[in-house]
Amino acid sequence: MIVPTPHHSEDSGDYGRDTLKADCAKCFGLCCVSLPFAASSDFAMDKQAGQPCRHLQSDFRCGIHDSLREKGFRGCTVYDCFGAGQKVSQVTYSGTDWRQAPETAKQMFEVFPVMRQLHELLAYLTQALSYEDAHLIHEELREQLSATQQLTELPPEKILELDIPVHRAEVNILLLKTSELVREEARRRYKGTAPRKNLKGRGADLIGAKLKGADLKFQSFRGAYLIAADLRDADLRITDLIGADFRDADIRGADLSRSLFLTQFQINAAKGNAATKIPPALERPFHWA
């Protein structure tokens, strides 16, 4: 049976999806400086927060961009800033980079991860507004989208004063309502055999879980640990995946074409192939088989 497609609305607020995609050409290499990483399977060396990566060039490009995974920097190919890098570089600091104005460097590196969280919330709210089945709360979603967008426009010292956990909690209430409305309406329309309704997916420890070919439609895997889970050929349509950890999850042949709140970051972290179905707004990672 065909799974009903969640009705999409043209009303997705003033924030376009392109604004929420990373544009490294307009960024001052902020993820290569601001963020720390430790030598591991994801990174070939240790780096402290605020310390430029040794591969960062004078033009803010990566010197090994075409061979990151081969040289031990798999984590760099997974990361996504939701467009926060260019926002901080071109808007918050008006296009003046931290090399031109070294007195701004420390503050800029601290602002970036805060902006990244705000842009992640903007991405979720924008997606929530695209679902017509959540029309009952569209006005609340629009108000929260506008409020969050205004926070991204604050001067840097004000951004650093924000209580991000409190704001995330407020946004999450609306995102949870959206998920419940969309999934419940999809269940109502569904004409096939109802899939399992409760896998205890929300926040669950499903590390290494054997879910090959599983019917996971309409489930909530919010915050679930799906690290290295076998999800080959699984059906994840109209499944809430917000915050789910997809590191090394095997999604070859899986259908995530209408998954809820799926991000590029999650897709990048998983193992997929040409048969994996993903939402049209996301890009197929170059490192997939």
Kindly describe this structure.
The chain has 289 residues and is mainly alpha-helical. The protein is 31% helix and 0% strand. It has 7 helices and no strands. It is globular, with a radius of gyration of 20 Å. 40% of the residues are buried. The model has no long low-confidence stretch (mean pLDDT 92).
What topology emerges from the helices and strands here?
Blueprint: H1 74-78, H2 84-92, H3 105-129, H4 138-152, H5 156-159, H6 164-189, H7 264-269
Helix pairs in contact: 2-3, 3-4, 3-6
Count of helical segments? Answer: 7
Query: Mind summarizing the main beta sheet?
Result: none
- Give the CA-CA distance, first to last residue: 29 Å
Order of helices and strands: HHHHHHH
Unreliable sequence segments: none
Q: Which percent bin holds the helix content?
A: 25-40%
Beta strand count: 0
Radius of gyration: 20 Å
Which whole number gives the mean pLDDT? 92
